[in-house]
Amino acid sequence: MKQERILMAHGSGGLMSQRLIEEIFKSAWDNEIMAPMLDGAVFEIPAGRLAMSTDSFVITPLFFPGGDIGKLSVCGTVNDLVACGAHPMYLSTAFIIEEGFPLADLRRIAGSMAATAKETGIKLITGDTKVVEKGSADGIFINTTGIGVIKEGIDLRPSRIVPGDLIIVTGYIGDHGLSILAQREGLRFSTPAVSDCAPLYQLTALTDKYQQAIKCMRDPTRGGLATVLNEIAQQAGAGINITEAAVPVSEVVKGASDMLGMDPLYMANEGKMVLFVSAEASHDIMADLKKIPLTSHASIIGEVTSTATGMVLIETELGARRILGMLEGEHVPRIC
Amino acid sequence: MNEISQYQQKLLQAIQKVSKSITLMEVCGTHTMAIAKSGIRELLPENITLLSGPGCPVCVTSQGDIDAIIEMVQIKDIILVTFGDMIRVPGTNSSLQEERSKGADIRIAYSPLDALRIARKNPHKEVVFLGIGFETTAPAIAITVEQASAEQLRNFSVFSLHKVVPPALEHIFSDQEIRVDGLICPGHVSMIIGTGPYDILTEKYKKPCVVTGFETIDILEGIYMLIKQISQGEAKTETQYRRLVKREGNLIARQAIDQVFELVDAKWRGLGLIEQSGLALHHAYAEMDARLKFNIAEKAEIPIKGCVCGEVLTGKIIPTACKLFGKACTPLNPVGPCMVSQEGSCAAYYRYTPWKGSNK
Q1: What crossing angle do the helices spanning A251-260 and A175-185 adopt, rounded to 10°?
Q2: What interhelical angle do A69-83 and A103-120 show, nearest 10?
Q3: Is B95 at the interface with chain A, CB within 8 A?
Q4: A12 or B224: whose pLDDT is higher?
């Protein structure tokens, strides 16, 4: 059977564009806001503050253990909204597709976007597709923009962080980074490296419940945990001390990164959150995190201090203390 | 505290009790990184000094060799396949990264077999693999060369910068300017070469060698074993990394190296020309030797102004003593290779800066 592929005509705006949208996108995402097929989405929003976030997704390979670019494009924006303390509500999406891209893959990507959106309770309400000539894009690029509503009393930002606050990471780090590297380079481990790509919408229940006790949240994607901690130390004007042994790292990531000469602290995550919380509330917050499957391996990794402001210090397994810097250049495996 | 931490603390305490002034050198880039990352150096008493040696393959590559590769990639229809770190190493006037931005076809690979795949896909281009590393990476390149030969892949060749470790260690021990009392020997290299080569060194120079693994606990134990020998006036080869290193090494890997490569004199950055310390393709594989195939002449060594990588590589100065360190030379903007490579001692000192301030 001949494989159906994206043609330049699919981006013409004519009949083929219409069919593509009807058959692939609308059937996967149908909801009452998208249904009238207007030039834009028309919808109502509850009173209060809104959060809005946008992200573009370019990844090789498009399909990887634990997810694909579709799931990733929903999770990425959902998690950014969650990190703002918002309940994710609506999502727009734009596709740039390379001529010749298999329709079956597009269908699969649209389907996983729909499934992730459904799980999260966010609605895909408007979108756009463009087709570019073969060679002008690497398969498919996806942009998503999301809007969420922030409930009264929630105020997440680095400037609220004070010395004594504790730092929580919600689970094993480095899984996504290793999974992508392994796929790209054909590396195989006895335990497969699976991406942690997941929408962390359940954390909104915690921000609603603990309100001011949660000071700030951020998802440690590109650049990993180390980069996020450095950014926050700088933005908050505070010092951060973490303990190496308290940072959750799975056996497969630990083994593989030792072998490849990489550091899990700098590897990407797509389903983790870093929380800065008041020490008083930390016990209850940890207890609640442990009850949610996606955050059941949460760990208190360190605390905020008033010395060494703008810096992150890490206490090694041996008890030595060193500066945990930002990622310099690319993070690539070593030679021998 | 678990058993590992307990044992580590015990080792540290035992090391801290030694009053004699002792200087040890680790001669593997992976050790350099592991030591910096774990903070071992900061926990040792002042009388025990850990120096980093010539254990980073990118760092010890001579400036002339880098310039020769840069010249080669300018030849039309060449695809150079290399490991990641090499592309950022500055040559005298350019780097591979710069050449790539000007249009040279340079690709980063994780395995030499990737280069074969590229050669099969591009029959009208010349694919050159940049072979770099010590006895650990050489067997994989050897197998790749044999495979290419079996397939009669005529558009594949290797630019070999491979070096062997023991002659460099002999250089360290014999240099009067380098005061080293014992060597932390490379675990992975020794998996291949075994421990025999160290016996010759310990016998001749009366200084101990301990083949050591890469976990924090391994390195501490290796340091402890060396200090114990030195305190007791002994000088022998010991293996801390017993779980992987055998006396005879890995015979199959050694055979692969012997079949494809031959020992030649090689130039090392910082150490100069060392006899019988490089691996060139054996004459039976001469048609796959990129230097011969593209007629690349040897280049003169033009030192980089202000860069003391050579002294750093021999432990004559520590990275932070270089005037450029952390100022003109950083991992984002490296002047010398020791700041480029992930195993380079300058990069290790830079990335894992110890914190000397108060705890809270």
Answers
A1: 60
A2: 30
A3: no
A4: B224
Q: Which of A91-105, B22-36, B305-319, B346-360 is the least confident region?
A: B346-360
Distance from CA of B97 to the nearest CA of A (A): 13
Lowest mean pLDDT among B296-300, B346-350, B351-355: B351-355
All domains in chain A, ordered by first residue: 8-150 (3.30.1330.10), 158-323 (3.90.650.10)
pTM: 0.87
Which residue do the tokens 């990184």 mark?
A: B33
Determine contact: B85 vs chain A, CB below 8 A: yes
Name the pLDDT band for A191 (thresholds 50, 70, 90). Answer: confident
The answer, for B161 touching chain A at a CB cutoff of 8 Å, is no
Chain A 279-318, residues with CB within 8 Å of chain B CB atoms = 305, 307-308, 313, 316-318
Query: What confidence category does residue A329 fall into, taking pLDDT thresholds of 50, 70 and 90?
Result: low
B343, B350, B355 ranked by CB distance to A321: nearest: B355
CB–CB contact B342 A325 (8 Å): no
| B37 to A330: CB separation less than 8 angstroms, yes or no | no
Q: Is the Cβ of B224 closer than 8 Å to some Cβ of chain A? A: no
List domains and CATH numbers for chain B: 58-164+250-293 (3.40.50.11740)
B302-341 residues touching A, CB cutoff 8 A: 330-332, 341
Say if the Cβ atoms of B39 and A334 lie within 8 Å: no
What's residue A233's pLDDT? 97
Q: Which helix (H) or strand (E) holds A128?
A: strand A123-132
* Nearest alpha-carbon partner for B183 in B223, B151, B155, B213: B223
Which of A318, A323, A335 lies nearest to residue B83, judging by beta carbons? A335
Pairwise CA distance, residues B111 & B81, whole Å: 10
CB B174, CB B205: distance < 8 Å: yes
Buried b (16+ CB within 10 A) or exposed e, A193-213: bbbbbbbbbbbbebbbebbeb
| Cβ within 8 Å, pair B84-A333 | yes
Asked if the C-beta of A336 comes within 8 angstroms of chain B's C-beta atoms, the answer is yes
| Tokens (6 digits) for B351 | 């990335």
Q: Kindly provide the b/e burial profile for residues B83-112, where b requires at least 16 CB atoms within 10 angstroms of the residue's own CB.
A: bbbbbbbbbbebbbeebbeeebbbebbbeb
Query: Residue A163 carries which side chain, given as an amino acid letter?
Result: P
pLDDT tens digit sequence for A295-307: 999 999 999 999 8
Residue A333 contacts residue A260 (beta carbons within 8 Å): yes
- Average pLDDT (A199-216) is 97
Percent of chain A with pLDDT over 90: 76
Measured between alpha carbons, how far is B300 from B62 in angstroms, rounded to an integer?
A: 10
Chain B contacts of A335, Cβ < 8 Å?
57-58, 83, 85, 132-133, 137, 341-343
